[in-house]
Amino acid sequence: MSWDILVNIFFILCSIILSLATLTECFYWYEYKNSTSSVFNNNKVAWWKLIWRVIETFVSWIVVYLMYPFVRLLAKPLVDKNGKKPPLILVHGLFHNASTWFFYKLWFKKAGYTRVHLYSYPVHGKELWGLTKYLEKAVSEVESLYPGEKPILIGMSLGGLMIRGWMSETDPRVENRENGTTKTNHDRIRAVITLGTPHSGSKLAAFGIEKTSRSLSPSGPFFKELVAKESITKSEWIPKIALYSLADNLVLPTDNLMPPSEWNKDTLPQVTHVAMMLCKRTFNKMLGHLNKLPDNSNSFENNNK
């Protein structure tokens, strides 16, 4: 294949990505202008900011997808049997792989987190409930590396929904029932943090071209089943924190970024959806919450915002 053909393909792909970035910002603007939600209180968006956000989205997608083929190199875990901080499991979002977390892995290491595990899973053509088995494998591997220690799960976008789904499922290691209730995976982790997770789905799922993206529809069966399973889960309290950006252009309406009522929530710097994975300010905000987590989550009481 000649160099000219490669250049032409690159420019065609860039044109497609730029068009999609522009389209998502147009959808965001429409939702913003027609929203009556209190989420946007004191958050005025000037139209010219959308131009910057289109550029931000475009650059973010280019960087993330350029890293995609190098996942084996970029997503190597940080393993430290003598680490002082709890192990972390990072779960990526839709149409990404573990390479998306590359910069976070570097920043975590610099912050003293020397046990960071990044996992890829297939997201094409899968039902959301079918993805939880991959997270089960990831958690089991970390549990075997650090016996007796509970990891902290951090999920980006779809990764956060995977975590919620997995937490609501029965712990496969426990056969017996206690007091008529089944022990769930919820009790196997120290805490959970989500970034830009569509906790109630996204309207953009209507444009999904395959099963996984379409299953993010707010009216889809996954969310009804998830709420039903979570409502009957009786487990010890652990910190659950949802972080979101009011500039998120892929989770619409913005209200759908809000987690269940028992979760804590906080806003991130106003960056677009994928840009969260490249933004040091976003990482620092999450790190602040991470560093405030108690050493033994189960010994502390909930302090919802």
From TrEMBL:
It holds the Pfam family Abhydrolase_6. The keyword Hydrolase applies. The chain crosses the membrane at residues 6-30, 50-68, 88-108. Residues 88-188 form the AB hydrolase-1 domain. Keywords: Hydrolase, Membrane, Transmembrane, Transmembrane helix. GO terms for molecular function: hydrolase activity. This is Alpha/beta hydrolase family protein. It comes from Desulfovibrio litoralis DSM 11393.
